[in-house]
Amino acid sequence: MRRHITFERLHNFRDLGGYPTADGGSVRWATLYRSDSLGKLAGPDARACDLTRFRELGIDTVIDLRYPWEIASRGRHPESEPQTWHNLSIEHRPYDQVDREPDADPWRFLADRFAEVALDGAVELRRALEVIAAAEGPVVFHCAAGKDRTGLLAALVLALLDVPDEEVVADFALTELATERFLADWKVAHPDREVRWNGFGRAPAVVMRLVLADLRATYGSVRDYATGHLAVDPAVLEALRERLVERAAV
Question: How far apart are CA 207 and CA 232, in angstroms?
Answer without folding.
Answer: 25
